[in-house]
Amino acid sequence: EIILKQINDNSIREEILDMMSYQDKLDKTYIQLYNLGALNRSNVKRALFDECGELNHEMKKEWCYWKKSQKPIDRAAVLEELSDVFHFSLTLHMMDFGKTFDNMWLEMYRDYHKDDDWFTLLDCISRGTKFGLYLCVILSEKLNFTFDEVYNSYLEKNAKNYQRIEDGY
Which of 4, 47, 48, 116 has the smallest number of CB atoms closer than 10 Å to its CB? Predict the structure, then answer.
């Protein structure tokens, strides 16, 4: 099992590094297009907070105890919101650590958060803490997504963001 986990974590690491390249290019596109000079960390954190709220809303069926008519959880919508959370978490991570991802930190945070539910992780991520990207991976697992699903969803959303730029969004 440990060998399998190492292979999976190395695969996750490679996909995260690939996502960082895509995110860096997208961030640079926004900087150039809107003459930003650089991204404002506070604004990135605000965007991350907002996307965490949207993900929480997609999970409402799980926590909305006062409304019996709550719509069922839409797994595809949850995955799309999760990919938005990844976009801003990647940006913050690169602001703090550059294009690096260390499996040791992932394992440490997995162990530390092993008893936490998805909302506890989302709450931590929403604060824009330095190790939020690692928590995003763990959140994905808590929501029962494979990392390949997350990776593919991220790539789709990244392409959609470029289409939005082209459309003047």
Answer: 4
Cα-Cα-Cα-Cα dihedral sign, residues 73, 26, 97, 127 = negative
The tokens describing 75, both together, are: 């797994």
C-alpha to C-alpha distance for 86 and 79, rounded to whole angstroms: 10
For the purposes of burial, counting CB atoms within 10 Å of the CB of 104, is it exposed (0-12), middle (13-18) or buried (19 or more)?
A: exposed
Positive or negative torsion for Cα 114, 155, 21, 130 = negative
Query: Which letter does DSSP use for residue 70 in this model?
Result: P
| Least confident span in 32-41, 77-86, 87-96 | 32-41
Residues 110-147: pLDDT tens digits? 999 999 999 999 999 999 999 999 999 999 999 999 99
Please state, in angstroms and rounded to a whole number, the distance separating the CA atoms of residues 51 and 148. 21
**Stated pTM of the model:** 0.93
Instruction: Answer yes or no: is pLDDT of 38 > 60.
Output: yes
